[in-house]
Amino acid sequence: MFDQQRMRMALYSLLRPLVFTLDAERAHKLSIAGLKALPAGAPPVFDPALAMEVAGLRFHSPVGLAAGYDKDAEVFGPMLGMGFGFVEVGTLTPRPQAGNPKPRMFRLVEDAAVINRLGFNNRGQEAALARLKGPRRGIVGVNIGANKDSADRIRDYAEGVRRMAPVADYLTVNISSPNTPGLRNLQAGGELAELLAAVREARGAGGPPVFLKVAPDLDEGDPIRIVRAVSDHGIDGIIVSNTTITRPPLGSRHRDETGGLSGKPLASLAMHQLQAFHAVTGGEVPLISAGGITDGGDAWRRICAGASLVQLYSAMVYRGPGIARAIADDLLRRLRQTRFATLAEAVGSSA
Ligand SMILES: Cc1cc2nc3c(=O)[nH]c(=O)nc-3n(C[C@H](O)[C@H](O)[C@H](O)COP(=O)(O)O)c2cc1C
């Protein structure tokens, strides 16, 4: 298995110059078509020491694929086969929508980053439902959002929960995309409580766990307020974080594009917010860390800072899908150098 993974990564580094001659969104589309055409391999067997129990779910590897790659739930099977411990599909909105005008996705190669302003382009929840029915070989989360032209965004989330709960291992309420104007206002006090109450009611008893995905661009008092709302409304975890609208120093020619920045330059902000949320939750609410995770060292530090799971997207653009398995292997190697018997014991150990 190790050799197969090394081969995949070598193959991707050979293909990369060719892939990078294409516009980023076109390359993404082609990769989805390629994955759909190939038979999905069986997921690898991970060392049991890597397993994490979160919100009643057992994750065989803590390294997941973040939302936005498999927006329409087309390739979660192949991605599980490539070695992701879980895959989050979406963001899916109640009705299909085209998203923003193209070009709207940019590789910042010199910065190992991506800027996107896709704007929830997706074929809608109904279309994804059929693909999500039936057996699958791993955990698949469904990330839901609101339509841009919706008159009642809270109702969109409630509708998404009701519709997608039967086919989701977990649901993510995404209120942190910077590319739908006004969406992030739902993170504010009164609106957040109203939203989470509606989500709880829509899920009902016996529905899947629900995670809330937040932006990294928060004020100092925000984590405490968000955690309080999450606890008050029975939300099962927080994904920290989505892309940032801030611009740390960047070197690539696309640096001034509008949109959400992800990848390496997001890492320190994502880590800072993870630490802020962990300080507030004290380990009581599971945290999932995303933002600039590029290798096993990054993943290890996030886990030690309080993350039970990690997710990535941008690093896969630069290193290919073999990165998930490579990070899991590296986590195991790091774990073996500590006094901990399982990765779960390392969660929050450096906090
Ligand atoms: C091209 C692109 C599209 C994305 N689309 C979504 C999305 O639809 N929903 C969502 O919650 N996050 C979306 N994200 C954010 C990622 O899920 C993730 O939170 C963020 O990119 C930080 O992780 P990374 O630095 O590993 O990419 C997208 C990111 C990228 C790069």
What does this structure look like?
By secondary structure, this protein is an alpha/beta fold. It has one domain (2-346): Aldolase class I (TIM Barrel, Alpha-Beta Barrel), CATH 3.20.20.70. It has 12 helices and 13 strands. It has helices at residues 2-19, 24-37, 76-81, 125-132, 153-164, 189-203, 222-232, 267-281, 296-304, 314-319, 323-336, 343-346; strands at 52-54, 57-59, 63-65, 86-92, 105-108, 113-116, 139-144, 170-174, 210-214, 237-240, 260-263, 287-290, 307-312. The strands form 3 sheets. It has an 8-stranded parallel β-barrel, surrounded by 4 helices. A 3-stranded antiparallel β-sheet has the order 5-6-11, with no helix packed on it. Strand 7 (139-144), helix 5 and strand 8 form a beta-alpha-beta unit. Helix 5 runs parallel beside helix 6 and helix 6 runs parallel beside helix 7. The model has no long low-confidence stretch (mean pLDDT 94). The site of flavin mononucleotide has 27 residues, from strand 4, strand 6, strand 11 and helix 10. Substrate binds at residues 71, 116-120, 174, 179, 242-243. Its cofactor is FMN. It catalyses: (S)-dihydroorotate + a quinone = orotate + a quinol. The active site is at 177 (nucleophile). Pathway: Pyrimidine metabolism; UMP biosynthesis via de novo pathway; orotate from (S)-dihydroorotate (quinone route): step 1/1.
Write the layout of secondary structure elements.
Elements: H1 2-19, H2 24-37, E1 52-54, E2 57-59, E3 63-65, H3 76-81, E4 86-92, E5 105-108, E6 113-116, H4 125-132, E7 139-144, H5 153-164, E8 170-174, H6 189-203, E9 210-214, H7 222-232, E10 237-240, E11 260-263, H8 267-281, E12 287-290, H9 296-304, E13 307-312, H10 314-319, H11 323-336, H12 343-346
Parallel strand pairs: 3-4, 3-13, 4-7, 7-8, 8-9, 9-10, 10-12, 12-13
Antiparallel strand pairs: 1-2, 5-6, 6-11
The structure holds flavin mononucleotide.
InterPro entries: Aldolase_TIM, DHO_dehydrogenase, Dihydroorotate_DH_1_2, Dihydroorotate_DH_2, Dihydroorotate_DH_cat, Dihydroorotate_DH_CS
Binding site for substrate: 71, 116-120, 174, 179, 242-243
Subcellular location: Cell membrane; Membrane
